[in-house]
Amino acid sequence: MKQLTNGYGARSAIRLASSKTDYPQSFSLLRNLSNLVCVRLSTDDLRMIPFMMIVCGIKVIDSLVGASKALAELMDMAARMEIKLIIKIYDLARLDEVL
User: Fold this and answer.
1) Using one digit for the tens of pLDDT, what is the confidence trace for 34-64?
2) Is residue 57 part of a domain?
3) Residue pair 31/58 in contact by the 8 Å Cβ criterion
4) Of 5, 9, 12, 68, which has the most beta carbons under 10 Å away?
5) Segments forming the whole domain that contains residue 26
């Protein structure tokens, strides 16, 4: 992700896994002042978050999916490639225009 964004990282990421080891990977994909959406964030997960939130200005958003069925349907959509990622790359000279 950093290579695709000239070293900046993504503006947002969605974290679906529930292991503490995936936080470093999630944060490494993000640029400063970005968003990390966590599906089913638990209180155990909160220990890793404050440092990266403060240092990099990453906003962590909890998204509680109503039911496991809804999450399974979303994952099926992703597996069928019905969710498309749109990446736009701009020259740094257009920074003010893009933001």
Assistant:
1) 988 887 666 565 555 677 778 888 888 776 6
2) yes
3) no
4) 9
5) 10-98
